[in-house]
Amino acid sequence: MPDIDLDSFRAETRAWLEENCPPEMRTPAASDDDQCWGGRKFTFQSEAQKLWLERMAAKGWTVPDWAPEYGGGGLSRAETRVLHQEMARIKARSPLSSFGIWMLGPALLKYGTEDQKREHLPPIARGEIRWCQGYSEPGAGSDLAGLQTRAVSATDEGGDYYIINGQKVWTSYADKADWIFCLVRTDPEAPKHKGISFILFDMDQPGVEPKPIRLISGSSPFCETFFTDARAEKKDLVYEENKGWDVAKYLLGHEREMISGMGHGGGGKTLPQMALDSVGVGAGGRLADPLMRAEIAMFEVRAAAYRAQAERFNDEWKAGRINPAVSSMMKYYGTELNKRRNELAMQAGGTGALEWESEESNGGKSARDWLRSKGNSIEGGTSEIQLNIVAKRVLELPG
Amino acid sequence: MPDIDLDSFRAETRAWLEENCPPEMRTPAASDDDQCWGGRKFTFQSEAQKLWLERMAAKGWTVPDWAPEYGGGGLSRAETRVLHQEMARIKARSPLSSFGIWMLGPALLKYGTEDQKREHLPPIARGEIRWCQGYSEPGAGSDLAGLQTRAVSATDEGGDYYIINGQKVWTSYADKADWIFCLVRTDPEAPKHKGISFILFDMDQPGVEPKPIRLISGSSPFCETFFTDARAEKKDLVYEENKGWDVAKYLLGHEREMISGMGHGGGGKTLPQMALDSVGVGAGGRLADPLMRAEIAMFEVRAAAYRAQAERFNDEWKAGRINPAVSSMMKYYGTELNKRRNELAMQAGGTGALEWESEESNGGKSARDWLRSKGNSIEGGTSEIQLNIVAKRVLELPG
Amino acid sequence: MPLYLTDDQDMLRDSAKGFLAVKAPVAHLRKLRDADDAAGYDPALWKECAEMGFTSILIPEAEGGLGLGHVEAGVVLEEMGRNLTPSPMLPTAVAAVAALKKGGAQHRDKWFPKIASGDATVALAIDEGAKHDPAATAMRAERSGNGFKLSGRKRFVVQGHTADMLIVAARTAGSAGESDGITLFAVEKGTAKMTADPRRLADSSFAAVVEFDGVELDADAVIGEVDAGWAPLTAMLCAGRAGASAELLGVGQGTTDQTMAYIKERKQFGVIIGTFQALQHRAAHLYAELEVARAATLKAQQLLDDIVDEKSADRARRAVHTAKAMTGLATTLAVQEGVQMHAGVGMTDEYDVGLYMKRARTLAELFGDTNYHADRLACEAGY
Amino acid sequence: MPLYLTDDQDMLRDSAKGFLAVKAPVAHLRKLRDADDAAGYDPALWKECAEMGFTSILIPEAEGGLGLGHVEAGVVLEEMGRNLTPSPMLPTAVAAVAALKKGGAQHRDKWFPKIASGDATVALAIDEGAKHDPAATAMRAERSGNGFKLSGRKRFVVQGHTADMLIVAARTAGSAGESDGITLFAVEKGTAKMTADPRRLADSSFAAVVEFDGVELDADAVIGEVDAGWAPLTAMLCAGRAGASAELLGVGQGTTDQTMAYIKERKQFGVIIGTFQALQHRAAHLYAELEVARAATLKAQQLLDDIVDEKSADRARRAVHTAKAMTGLATTLAVQEGVQMHAGVGMTDEYDVGLYMKRARTLAELFGDTNYHADRLACEAGY
């Protein structure tokens, strides 16, 4: 039986998008820099980008399934799906890329007070405030709960607040964000998971100093961020004091859902094609470098098998048939494959792939991608952590 | 300056060997079964084998550097070397294969009383008593010192003795040996290394039951051996009670010196030759199976490099320049290489190498060698134990 | 179709698992081996397998079978792999059925009922060299009167000494290396001038060297078309390879289950060795390899069951190459880690892990090893 | 000769180590890089290296050098690798010297004094494709009057934009793939119609693409014999590959030393991560790979220093293939494990491990990667 309401919603949406989505916004964004991130410091790359955000935000469609009072479109799940299908149909870009939407929003919707939601969600939806996250610290990577950034209660004429001192690392776009959602230690005496709070504060204050991190692959969105007597209002504490770890776990779970696409190798040329272009064909129509060919052939077997596994994982996940800890296996295998793929791409590219700045090398793209890929098995939980999780929670090994 | 004494010793030895070594004993032994092991239960395979043992034993040359009073030849190190060179010159076989010579002898010479030496060494030298060793137990493999076989003191009209109960495993040729040198627990209350004794006793008694172990590769020299109220005389305790671990460690050190030949792959065909014979030549004169070729080529690199490392290790060892724990690295790498070599030999041999009994397959030699090679990284300390040792004693990693 | 078993397939698995656990656990293989059995399997058990419906899975309903697919065949084979059950399931009820589906009615009418009832088994005579390479088929089938005369030698004919019929690939045209010019023949047991010399393999199964010394066959012995045997041969090998992948997976999973159980119990230095992090990481890596191999195998089976045209057939064939290559990698790792983690006892015949290692080796070689399939994929991808 | 360093060689190592630790630690590379230096190395440091005698090691005593061997050159290169010291040592004082020893007196008389004094550097123009393959040399050198005219393009000419002389391999006969017909030429900086386009590489070093647009050379520019350049080319490449192996080994050892120090200090979950058994086993395995690579390298160096006839030259050449292949494997593992064990900080430019990873990649590619050398050994062994 056709859903008449949904059909009419689809027709209306299609018409609205046709009319309102600027033609320039109907092509994919080439890179992070090409996306619309919003926020106080953001400079729109084009009038079209600005217009597209404004029009979508006005309808609440930057966050279509949030309630209208929080800046959302109030759409049902089915309507939201229709909207995404219709956007995909005309290849419309997402109007807004935002850690506020992807991460803080879900956390506030689950753990925030009504006041917090009304204060913080609408500016996120409209792209007015850009957020960054403050999780990892130099001494707390795999052991996130070992974080040391301190928040001490204080009061002044402005009310109750926290004084924050410490350092975060791997804060993406901290130098461009307006506010931060941040894990801080509020009880240094408690067991480590029990003394952490989840707090929001404005980055635009003297005690906050973000410093971009240079990676081995070149510049990056990551920052180190230093807090020296930074101020956070008590009203911006999310959930209860010393219960921030619950919020963090919820958010990390969210993050892990995004991983199963790993190991597919991005678009562009396949590894065999890359090798053929670089090395050429030898005896019997085979790749001229026989040992490279063998390595690539073996990689391709694993890559094809992993694509099947990714399909299976997604199918089982959707059907609720799977131990969530299996996602650790996916993360491990996918990232290791992607690193291997980049190693082989460097081998295939040979001396040309070593170039770092030349035009032919597209600014050293192969080499930079290769080096950047080494982070895959570190960020979002190291391979070692994933293997620990699989051993304990899937294989149920003791200890 | 030529050593005149040594030169005349060489001439005499050469003459004696020419006259006394039967021609049949001037070819290498084909297998363990082909060697002369001596002992009460031994059946000589030939008159020549018997004669060769008797003649050499009469001169004390089964153990040329032991003192004459212990059945040895009383030769100096230099003379012993000359004897070995002259034997090698005519390809003379060793007259006697013996754990008594290789293992117990050195231990008794270092830790035994004068009475013990005079009682036990001459029959070893003459090949009259065949020994086996009782170290590992089902519950004490890598953790050898965790052994549980109990020895309890007792006295009767025959004197002071121990009553032994327990089980040993991996006792090579226990079913063919006359006596055993055995680690037993004499103090169950003491820390595990401090309650162990090293004791000798006769296997020919009702309480001793050796049972051959069938391996995955087929029959083997190994046995399980069960002791039920077996008797060992107190006079046959070597070194002090509860200090047997010192003797054991000394013996294990001896064992480890024999390892650096691993990974060379025995004689016979090289892996590439084996593959060429089995798979044939394809495009461009290369092995017809290109991925097998790549695997073999990469193996050959590691094997050649390891040969250099074995040479270096031996040179450094002789010069006393090396951390003894490096031998663990050699054992690890050499045995892993040998396993790899056998995997590749099976791949190269293909379906023919799967045959287990046929004549063409020489009774399944490839398959049995392959399966037997899996034990290389287990016996004499597992690869895991070797890696632990390298991590701790070479790399000095903590914990 | 989601990439996991349907409820019906799950039920089939439970039923096969239950049946084999009782009738043919590893002890069954040991019994046959230690009795120096000359057949390589237990015909009585095989009849029971037929009664369970295992032999009918791939036979179309219209021809008296269950009309199920490669997924279902794989479910049974995986359980056989897990139990190391000796049986002619893979050549007879999977590979041969797939070939005969592409053959004439005379073959189907004759053999499908007997296969279904467990009264006939079939063996495949394809390989000639030490390594699987069907395009290299060189054995000649000369035209002779209305029929053909076969001369040459086939190797690694699994259960060739007991089979009631052999499917034989021989060259009626062209030369070794070409896929055109090969013809498939059905050759019945007892045909004159054919002799099978059974060789016991490391895993206690048998494969025969079969000599054809001018074996005379009628024209209707041909399966499919003369000179165009590559099509039924490919169908047969795809089925065989997907089935071998499933069985390999069962071998890998079976040994790994035992290994995990062992390291959860075994103590060294007073500590359960399964707590050692180095072993845990290796175990987790092994788990990943097996899961990836499992997905590749299921994908191949589903695609085989989904063939509608040449394009989907090609896609399925490639997926089968991937599955056989990947299960070879994963299960080889599983048996190696199995023996090493069992350590001393893993080297003894008393424990099962050595039997798994031997079976894995035979299956890895059967219908082409990892290198063969990875190489095929590379050639097809044009490098 | 025992396979370890002599006392004299140990002293040389200590002296190189001390010198480089002060003059050219990793900070020196960072300084050059961050200043966007256009030369790729520091000429003043190079003069000091010459004063230390590094540039004279392989030059015969009779020609004003130290008359030492490849072991000694390797000792210095290993320390340079350990410190990531940018210098023209490998092409100039090792590879070029080995080639010129096989060349005419005109070259030796001219270049040896300048190389020894640090006043001249040499670059090698061999590669034409993306992968090292000297036999594939296709660039033509046509006869022209009494001399030759060179046309074509060379790639990956390390420090080609700063070198005072280029050793160029070009084809005077035969065709790509043949070792006969190649001739080596000495081409001086500033020669007309030759242009070098420097490309900065990932490791901050420079390699040039060099265009020869009808470059005219006198007959005495030839190194060795016309059409028979394969001999001096092989000598040069053997020296270069053994040297690159030593430098790679230094890179692998240098980064591993830092990694071991890091995991002995770094805590996670309140525990020093170096206590985790999984890391310990990987560290021990890495140690083994590096030691095996070290032995292979020293063996190759000793055999190069021991060449007396064709047979010993062949043996040395094979040992060099092994060394370069094995150091490629070991050091690649070392930098990969280095970054992973450093985890987050390993990804930052602030720590050195990323610089080691980049340098390792360049050296792995230089003079042929592991696959190239393993393949050569296989071809020579007849498979």
Automatic annotation (TrEMBL), chains A, B:
Domain of life from the UniProt record: Bacteria
List residues of the Acyl-CoA dehydrogenase/oxidase N-terminal domain: 8-128
Spell out the residue ranges making up region: Disordered. Answer: 356-375
Q: Which InterPro entries match?
A: Acyl-CoA_Oxase/DH_mid-dom, AcylCo_DH/oxidase_C, AcylCoA_DH/ox_N, Mycobact_Acyl-CoA_DH
Q: Which residues form the Acyl-CoA dehydrogenase/oxidase C-terminal domain?
A: 242-395
Answer whether the UniProt record assigns the keyword Flavoprotein to this protein: yes
UniProt entry keywords in alphabetical sequence? Flavoprotein, Oxidoreductase
**Stretches assigned to the Acyl-CoA oxidase/dehydrogenase middle domain:** 132-229
Q: Name one Pfam family in it.
A: Acyl-CoA_dh_M
Record-given protein name: Acyl-CoA dehydrogenase family protein
Q: Which organism is it from?
A: Pacificimonas pallii
Automatic annotation (TrEMBL), chains C, D:
> Does Flavoprotein count among this protein's keywords?
yes
Tell me which UniProt keywords the record has, alphabetically.
Answer: FAD, Flavoprotein, Oxidoreductase
By its UniProt entry, which CDD domains does this protein fall under? ACAD (cd00567)
Every copy of the Acyl-CoA dehydrogenase/oxidase N-terminal domain together lies at 6-119
* Family matches, as InterPro entries: Acyl-CoA_Oxase/DH_mid-dom, AcylCo_DH/oxidase_C, AcylCoA_DH/ox_N
- Domain Acyl-CoA oxidase/dehydrogenase middle as annotated: residue spans: 128-199
Pfam families linked: Acyl-CoA_dh_1, Acyl-CoA_dh_M, Acyl-CoA_dh_N
Residue ranges of the Acyl-CoA dehydrogenase/oxidase C-terminal domain? 228-378
Q: What is the recorded name of this protein?
A: Acyl-CoA dehydrogenase family protein
Which species is this record about?
Answer: Pacificimonas pallii
